[in-house]
Amino acid sequence: MILFAVILALTNFLDKIILDITYPFLEGSSQGKSIILFTVLGSLFILYPLFNLDGIIGKRISSLNNLLKYDNKKYLKFTIITIFFTYIFGLLIEVLIRIKLGVPILTTFIAYNSNSYSSSAVAHSHVFKSVLGFIIQSLGIHINTGVNAGVPLIPYTIPLALIVLVTWPLIYIGGIIAISNQERDLYKVILAFVLTLSLIGILDGGLFSTPAIIGLAGLLGIYFVKKPFSPRNLLKPSVIIIFLIILRFSLGLLGTNTEFHEITIINPADNIDLQGYNVLSVQKEQNKTIVKVPGNTNDKVLLTALTKTLKGKCSGFFLSWNILSYV
Q: For the chain, how far is it from start to end, CA to CA, in angstroms?
């Protein structure tokens, strides 16, 4: 799996096939998520025997003190709590970015740097991906053009987003110990897969992304399942996941404005040309310009067009939602 991830990182000929296969659970538009999937999943299968109670690392951890002593559910519970905390903290960063810049919370943000752009929103967050991308870039490692590393978001996400450098490793270690504590091989495989999805969701998508929802569903399912198995064991995790799905769509509807799209341009240049966008109004405030255009254009179509139009003419922009434009 790790070797396959390296091949994906260095080549492009498998991109289309892998994206089609993994899209139902990764929701990916680039091979970045696939590379992380195979790397993390492969490493979990290789390393988890070392974290068994009889393993070299497992013996050491369990013998340090009673608090760290192995327990059937303790490390899995710790992992789930840390994942939820990281997701919530990521949402908090999204909110703080918008409060600081004085824009509505339920908007999509596009940030630019000299080389690229990156998006982020409460509904699909990339705040923690920006940290990983920045570290990779700082180390001089080449990032394939098919991977959006989120680096343009860095000026807006640090220092708070650096917390992922603590929680992500903790989740990985807690998760790998939880895998080693599973008695059944099937549960080990399932747990490794959903843990990997959760780790991917933290970096790319946030709490309401497909990897996050599937990952949490699997983690909670394994946590609440008992012997002998009963469908009732899955009632609590099902309620939690259904609540998250309903909350995701509720936020989309809450942020929807069908009358117009509001575009808030941050640090705009003087020569911005928005001809062809049927501009309804323009309002200038200190370091931003607020533009309104008709709301009957599909969000994704408008976002793609604006990203090209405003490149090099501002430091970023926010776009309001119209979830009904997808219908």
A: 39
